[in-house]
Structures are given as structure tokens and as C-alpha cells.
Amino acid sequence: MSPSAQEADQAGKVVVVTGGGTGIGRATARAFHEDGARVLIVGRSEAPLKESAEGRGGIRWLTADVHSPQAPERIVSAALREFGRIDVLVNNAAVAGFASLEHLDRATVEAQMGTNLIAPLFLTQRALDALEATRGTVVNVGSAGALGHRAWPESSVYGMAKTALDFLTRTWAVELAPRGIRCVGIAPGVVDTGVGVRAGMSPAAYDTFLAQMAERIPAGRVGRPEDIAWWIVQLTRPEAGYANGAVLAVDGALSVT
């Protein structure tokens, strides 16, 4: 397919991306914008959202904590007010933390589960009518670390939420198919998004972690946000219309070693 034909696939579409201020969310918003879509990005902090949208007139931004009870209404209403429709919802916002079982506290667990699992559930629920009107697609961003029978010491809560999100992807695919809505998942591997630093690692420790993981990954490197964004865009194209309920690992083959 020619680049111009590919662009036509996304031209006129409206995409909502949570966690759009950094990392995978920023790369995804920009990838959709480059393909002709209009995009609403959502995040808790204004400055990174503005940076994601800078110089891109088709990207709008909204500050919101996706876990707040008011967030689903605010986000969907903002998208419909700005653009009049929703074709794609990318549930990408996430928070991470590192702690073994004996050191977990309720506030940390509730914060991670709230953002990583409860927020996409209720945002998707609120967006259903808009997605049905466009025969749209929901993309849930999980984690390759939560696939299969692997353990994930000190990331049990994050992994628990992402495993549950994959289950929602499969279940929603079946539930929503009669309404013309698809639901697919992306399971990124180790991607250099800075998330480790935001979760409490020092920059030096995070760099060491990335270097160590690059040696373990069969592809020979850690991922870039653009690696994941490309696949998210592809899964929303008309040609991907028969993919439903699938969770695609994009991790340099680490999860199959």
C-alpha cells in the first residue's frame, strides 16, 4: 500500500490517547497525527502534554487524572466537543512501582490498580456509544512482562493490573463485537520511556537496568516508544479489522526466551 493510501486510512479519524505526555503515549499521538488523524491526549501534567502537541495543530490536550470518577465524562466530552467523534481509544496511562509483598501498602496498590485497570475500564465504558457510531477500536496497552506463566518479583501489582487488562481485552472483544467495536492489546517489552525513574529508580540505576536488559533481549536492544506506536497505529487500520481480542507482544522476543 502506498504512503498516501495509508494516510487516507487515518485521515478524519479521531484518536484519544491517555498518558499522552511522555513515552509510548507521546509517540503514539504523534504517529497518528502524522497519518492524518486528529488526536486528544490526556495526562496529569500540563507541561509534557503541551510538549507532545507542540507544532502539531491536530493534537489537542486535556489535563486529567484518568482514575478520578469525573475523568471518563471529561475526556469523552472533550473529544466530542473538539472533534465530534471518537474512532480509536488508546488506554495507555499507567503508573508503576517496585516493592515486594511484605513492603506493599494499600495506598500504593490502590493507586496502581486505579490508573492501570479501573481507569481504562470506566473510560472505555463511557466511550462506547461514540465508538459504536464509528465502528471504532479500543487498544489496551499492557506489558509483555505480564504474559504467560512468568513471575515478576517486586512488580506484582503492576503485573497483576496488566494481566487483568489483557483479560478485559479478550472479554471486550467478544462483548462488543455485536456493536461493531474491536478491542486489541499491545504488550510492550522493555522500552526506554523513563518509567523506571518515575517509579523511583535513580537515573544511573535505570541506565544500568536498560543496559542489562539489552544483553538479555534477543533483538539486542531495548525498545523505543516509536516501536510500540507503529504497531498501535497498524492495529487500528482497516486492514487489521479481523484482529480482535488479540494481545500482541512487541518485545524483541524476550517473552519467548
TrEMBL record:
It comes from the Bacteria. It is an enzyme of class 1 (oxidoreductase). One of its GO terms (molecular function) is oxidoreductase activity. The keyword Transport does not apply. Keywords: Oxidoreductase. Residues 13-189 form the Ketoreductase domain. CDD domains: SDR_c. Pfam families: adh_short_C2. InterPro entries: KR_dom, NAD(P)-bd_dom_sf, SDR_fam. Its EC number is 1.1.1.-. The keyword Oxidoreductase applies. This is SDR family NAD(P)-dependent oxidoreductase. It comes from Streptomyces amakusaensis.
